[in-house]
Design brief:
By secondary structure, the protein is α+β, with helices and mostly antiparallel strands. Helices cover about 35% and strands about 25% of the residues. Helix 1 crosses helix 11 and helix 8 packs across helix 9. The two termini are about 20 Å apart. It binds zinc ion.
């Protein structure tokens, strides 16, 4: 395929009215009705796979107290600036220089620090931690940060930001432990597989956000499995099976990477060794080729990353299975074993395609907008040859809709050629051209978006063929 002919997903998203981004919400796409069909089909597919594999779907709050990420260790490891902070902040601007400052001395100190930090070059923002915390009546503590801006007239302005100690979650993991801790757990409940199509927010820099490929608002096909040590192997095998069946249906080639214990790690060495062996054995049992990434595991456990290659030969890391010894300890997760003793479960994080946004962008470019029929927002366009056929064609469309086929009738007063061209540009898999003969004989003249003429097909045969292709995800 010639790379120069390839449109990017943003362009296709607009041409086919799937999705777009707007200055009103940088890094968070708007999904149009047709794009939402793709989103929902992916959702249906992943739900079917997870239900079959024994997962139970959950939902955890999008906005949570920051303390949960402090308890999990994420806050410290990923940093406030890197991931979090897209929370509901209240900012008030204090125009008067002395409005919030206690004394002249304090004012002078701040202005000096501001000037020192910029060497007189004066970028417009500097931050000062003027006050630590404000306690509220309900026991909550609100942090404040004061930022200082130098205006064009040389005056200084101060903004006071109140941090209500809430954040938009950048990941679901710690909250899934809250679900686990809802009540005491028994070994009989393990493996406990909790899935969540969770909406996450991450603080990507504005220069890095790119259509649906790199976003600030992410919808993730996430899951956390709580298991005993003995169940790790069978659980990872089952996750690999889900990945294979998912990626095979898109015709992607995949590659597995096994990342092992880094220099700095949580948990004990014995557990790591067994876990790494389990991951390796799971890969071998499915006869999957894999590359070792020595010492590249997460600090909390070894992992398998899955890379796919798209139609342009580009490499994407999508799926992941990560074992976690750290979080069960950080949140003191337990289960009661057969002998009535308290034990620590292992946590497995897994995602099959990662993010709906990123995966849709990859699919859009991989298929150059010609989605397989099960994902196509419009599967069939019916084209009446003339005005007087419209009514009969609408009735035919109704029959197709009853069979759950997504069909549109192009009843515009355009030439037939123009309508065929439009449907081809919109990458609709099938076009059915219908005139007198077709209506009388209940047949349909079918063309594909590739320009192939399939001739006249009996209406019921055509319906059967389309339904079969949808079911088989052709
Ligand atoms: Zn997780």
């Amino acid at each position: 395929m010639n790379k120069n002919l390839i449109k990017d997903h943003k362009q296709i998203g607009i041409e086919q009215e799937l999705f777009f981004t707007s200055e009103y919400a940088p890094g968070a796409p708007f999904w149009l009705p047709k794009g939402m069909i793709i989103f929902k089909e992916l959702e249906k597919f992943i739900r079917k796979l997870t239900e079959k594999a024994g997962y139970q779907e959950t939902s955890t709050p999008i906005m949570v107290k920051t303390k949960i990420f402090k308890e999990s260790g994420h806050w410290e490891n990923f940093g406030e600036e890197a991931m979090y902070n897209l929370a509901d902040y209240e900012t008030e601007q204090i125009q008067e220089l002395d409005a919030i400052l206690q004394s002249e001395q304090e004012t002078k100190k701040i202005i000096k620090a501001f000037e020192d930090s910029h060497n007189g070059k004066a970028p417009i923002l500097a931050a000062f931690d003027l006050h630590g915390e404000i306690p509220l009546k309900n026991g909550e503590i609100i942090e404040t940060i004061v930022t200082c801006t130098k205006g064009a007239d040389g005056r200084y302005f101060f903004n006071r930001t109140l941090k209500p100690n809430l954040t938009l979650k950048p990941m679901n993991c710690p909250e899934s432990t809250v679900l686990y801790r809802f009540r005491p757990r028994s070994y009989k409940e393990l493996p406990l597989r909790l899935s969540e199509i969770g909406r996450l927010h991450r603080r990507e820099q504005s220069g890095e956000i790119n259509g649906l490929l790199r976003v600030r608002q992410i919808t993730m096909d996430d899951a956390h499995v709580f298991t005993t040590d003995e169940q790790i192997l069978s659980e990872v095998k089952s996750i690999l099976d889900m990945m294979i069946s998912f990626y095979d249906s898109f015709g992607f080639k995949y590659e597995f990477m096994l990342a092992t214990r880094p220099e700095v790690f949580a948990g004990d060495e014995e557990n790591w060794k067994t876990a790494e062996k389990d991951l390796e054995e799971a890969l071998k049992s499915r006869e999957l080729k894999y590359t070792m990434k020595e010492k590249e595991g997460a600090f909390y456990g070894p992992k398998i990353d899955v890379h796919i290659k798209d139609a342009l030969g580009r490499d994407w890391q999508l799926a992941t299975v990560q074992l976690d010894f750290h979080m069960p300890a950080a949140f003191d997760l337990k289960y009661v074993d057969q002998e009535g003793k308290q034990k620590r479960p292992v946590m497995i994080h897994r995602a099959i395609f990662g993010s709906f946004e990123r995966f849709t962008a990859i699919l859009t470019e991989h298929y150059v907008g010609a989605f397989p029929i099960w994902l196509s927002p419009v599967q069939v366009v019916l084209i009446p040859i003339s005005e007087r056929h419209v009514e009969a064609v609408e009735k035919m469309a109704e029959e197709l809709r009853k069979e759950n086929i997504r069909v549109e009738v192009d009843s515009r007063s355009e030439t037939m050629q123009a309508k065929i061209r439009q449907a081809t540009l919109q990458k609709v898999p099938y076009m059915g051209i219908i005139g007198d003969k077709e209506i009388n004989d209940r047949i349909i003249s079918v063309r594909t978006r590739e320009g192939k003429d399939l001739g006249q097909l009996n209406l019921s045969h055509f319906v059967k063929r389309v339904k079969q292709e949808i079911d088989q995800k052709v």
